[in-house]
Amino acid sequence: MRNAATAHRLLSLVSAPEKAASIVGDLEEEASTRGQRWFWRNVLHTAATHLGRDLSKAPLRMIAWAFWGWSGSWALAQLFSLAVAMWRSRLIGNIPSWELPVHAAIYLVIAPFLCGWDQARHKLGKAMAAACATVMLMAVVQLVSVYLSNLQVQRIGQPWPGMEWPFLQTLARTTFFLAGSILFRMRATAGSHAGR
Amino acid sequence: MPSPAPLGEFEQVVLLAILRLDNNAYGVTIRAEIAACTDREPAPGAIYITLDRLEEKGLVTSRFGEPTPQRGGRSKRYFTVTAAGVEAVTRAQESYQRLLRGLKLGEAFNA
Question: Would the ipTM clear 0.90, i.e. be above it?
Answer without folding.
Answer: no
